[in-house]
Design brief:
single chain; 203 residues; mainly alpha; 77% helix
């Protein structure tokens, strides 16, 4: 039961920022069709699986105490970074020309920049950039999960499913209720969850 709870908490913390992105898309009426959303979920799966495997392999050379401490430190550090980065994230940016492709950091700071052609729909190609931008924190979180001997396959599956559901649910909330403040709070909540999960592993 403890492993299942850790998987759920890790997946939620890794994907609450997806909820914020989905809400932003819903507010701006940017559509994220099922296939591009599946591509994003697949990228989250791949990043998580690889990072959990790397963490599990690294953990073989560490004591349980050291593995717990390093994993907890990673989660606390990522949680603080998520919170601080959200505070610096602009409320609204100046859209760049469609001919100027966005960088990953641009997409993370302003998710609407993933809609490169300004069509109002995230295509499969555009979803790859968005998926990588959203999955960066999955790597550090997955590495920590590997140090704690959480399985690569279940952890990656949890992340992939929650990635799809949070983006879809966020877009629905944003389109229906225009829940801008909820989107900001979701990112802060993700950072706080990572910090608390790291502190819990130290106890």
């Amino acid at each position: 039961m403890g492993t299942l709870l850790n998987l759920l908490l890790m997946g939620m913390a890794s994907n609450l920022d997806n909820l914020s992105v989905g809400i932003a898309y819903g507010i701006r009426r940017i559509k994220l069709p099922p296939l591009p959303n599946l591509v994003i979920a697949a990228i989250a799966f791949a990043f998580t699986y690889a990072s959990v495997w790397a963490g599990t392999y690294t953990g073989r050379f560490l004591s349980n105490r050291a593995a717990n401490a390093i994993g907890a430190g990673l989660l606390i550090g990522v949680g603080l970074w998520v919170i601080l980065a959200q505070r610096r994230r602009p409320e609204a940016g100046v859209p760049r020309p469609a001919s100027d492709p966005p960088l990953l950091l641009d997409v993370w700071q302003e998710p609407e920049e993933a809609d490169v052609d300004r069509s109002g729909v995230i295509s499969v190609g555009e979803s790859v950039v968005l998926g990588v931008a959203l999955s960066v924190n999955c790597f550090t979180n997955g590495f920590a999960a590997g140090l704690w001997n959480l399985g690569a396959l279940p952890t990656a599956m949890f992340n992939a499913v929650l990635s799809y559901m949070t983006l879809w649910g966020g877009a629905w909330l944003g389109a229906r209720y225009g829940a801008r403040r909820l989107g900001n709070k979701a990112t802060y909540a993700a950072g706080c969850m990572l910090i608390l999960l790291g502190i819990h592993q130290l106890s």
